[in-house]
Amino acid sequence: MTVPNYYKIIIPSSLHPDTILGIFLLKKFGSTKYPGIENAEIEIRQALQEGETSDSLKEKGIICLDVGGGDLDHHQKGKILSELVSLDVGVMEDPAILKLLAYAERDDKHGVGTISTDQLDRTFGLSGLISSLNKTTESPARILDIVFPLLEAHYLEERKRTSELPQEFEKYLRAGKAEIFEVKQRGKKLKIVALESDNVSMPGWLKSSIGLKADVVCQRKTSGYTNILTKQFKRVDLRWLAAYLRDEELQLKGKNIEYPPIELMKPGKLESVSEWYYDRATNSLLNGGANPKGVEPTKISITRIKEAMREALPRYMA
């Protein structure tokens, strides 16, 4: 049997979140099963013509979503359309789409795509914006052109968090470029992860509930720039660590300047040791931050920084 080129998608009414997500999943993941579907046009048709069925149209290269009573019509099936599509194209088990499906179900079944009762939240939430788009254009293609990049961005970020970053971190562990250890501060355990990586998404994932739930992350880039970030609600005391690192930096720079520890603990930047910025707002020690400019990379080795963390973090000031 010759596989047709799928050139059209029929939907019964204007676009809403579940329909948009169903089309997104079909176009993104369905090209193997439905060649050409990624370029298919959208047609709104409330009912099929007499004698037509979803199966007969499929043979002609037309996919029916929520119309015609076929496999991809969620009425009377107890599932949302996007769930049927994800099952049909084989991505139902992809953890990167779980939040998208949960959002579509909440919007479709319960009418609360945005739970907040705040009017601004509801107006500028995705469901509210899709509603506004439907009132300003009759072109489904135009609406999809606007919304698809948002869904794609979310999907890519979720794929990082659920698949790519965990796999990447495991490689660092096996290669000896990452280490997990604990110290106690104020009688409470702090989970620390130190790693050598240029991936700017890694620290956020390591601190997140879906990641390692690290309290402190030390990231060393190949350029030598090193940043120490913390989970803010843990209120990690970084003052002694700031003093240790600044003192070590001064020694490596050959500066014979004697500072009392209290001076080396000060927030912000010290002119004589500008490599380390103590940011109290984010509770972090930054050697250049995400985009280093006008700051030299630290001369302290990653091994010594880890030693300093083990020595300094158990110390704190009342």
Measured by DSSP, the beta-strand proportion falls in: 15-25%
Mean pLDDT: 94
Unreliable segments (pLDDT under 50, ≥5 consecutive)?
A: none
What is the tally of helical segments?
11
Shape: elongated
The portion of residues assigned to helices is 25-40%
Kindly, what is the distance between the CA atoms of the first and last residues, rounded to a whole number of angstroms? 77 Å
Task: Compute the number of strand runs.
Answer: 10
Radius of gyration: 27 Å
Biggest sheet record: 7 strands, mixed
Helix-strand makeup class: alpha/beta
Description:
- The protein has 318 residues and is of the alpha/beta class.
- The protein has two domains: 157 residues, no CATH class; 137 residues, no CATH class.
- Helix content is 40%, strand content 16%.
- A hairpin with a 5-residue loop joins strand 6 and strand 7.
- Helix 1 runs parallel beside helix 3 and helix 9 runs antiparallel to helix 11.
- The protein starts with 7 loop residues before the first strand and ends in a 6-residue tail after the last helix.
